[in-house]
Amino acid sequence: MAWRLAVLAALVLGTALIVRNQGSAPYRHNSGTVFGTVYNITYQCDSDLHAGIKAELQRVDASLSPFNERSVISAINRGEPATPDELFIHVFNLAQEVAENTGGALDITVAPLVNAWGFGFEGGPEPTPEAIDSIRRFTGYEKVRLSGGRIVKDDPRLKLDCSAIAKGYGSDVVAAYLRNRGVENFMVEIGGEIVTSGVSERRLPWRIGVTKPTDDSLSTGQEIQTVINVTDKAMATSGNYRNYYYKDGKKYAHTIDPHTGYPVQHSILSSTVIADDCATADAYATAFMVLGLQRAQAILKEHPELMAYFIYSDHDGKNRTWFSPSLRDKIQE
Q1: CB 245 within 8 A of CB 117
Q2: Bridge partners of residue 11, in order along the sequence
């Protein structure tokens, strides 16, 4: 009995020391640029982990960035015999799964179309109807596969672009690194794609704002539509209100419908998805922009593990909102 009491006392003392240390450790704030965007990371830790965080981000960039000529995905796009690493394989398999679940609304082979419309990692032909039809003949997620540890394409002209997942996956990778270092309270944000854990510096749940979708190509507007409790979850937002251009009086936004080859013209202005991991949230947020409101709602019924908040334009041109019923308790009006 005395031995058991001694062990119990040691456990209680150890737990008390851990709680005390967690309570006294400072919250640190690291920022920088990656994937062509900005990251902001807040975490509670005795030591500054920024060097390790940057190393993790560089790993993702070296695997998945089409803007990095030495990355795995760039080598694959050039048709070189590159061996995909574990990061690439994870994202590729997830992308193919979400493509299956959404009828191809998410399609990482859409890169040549994105390039043609001027939103990609390299130039492309002028997006005439003839050029778009020609490109569509060799795009499609079912025309590429992972076999024998290599990426196999049905057409050598096929190129991959994981931009719809990479930022979210980068947030997941950094979050995993922080957890492995014993960090329990943190928020990782890369270009608006977010993973949270524990509590904020104010000892409150993490609350994240959803920005109103007003045309803002310079990202200067930050008016908030609503605030969502995202504690111990991941959140990603996709919208056509920042990356766009006008030509001949017509607006062209960056989300391309893989089925038509043209920028989407649906009523959804902003698609926010909450999931257990940010790569999944990021992928579905993009897919829902392609699907439109009703088809996105149908997908959500089939996947109750997902929650979504949509801002859309009604028939009168007024902004409306719709959100998953399971999200109601998380919305902070």
Answers
A1: no
A2: none
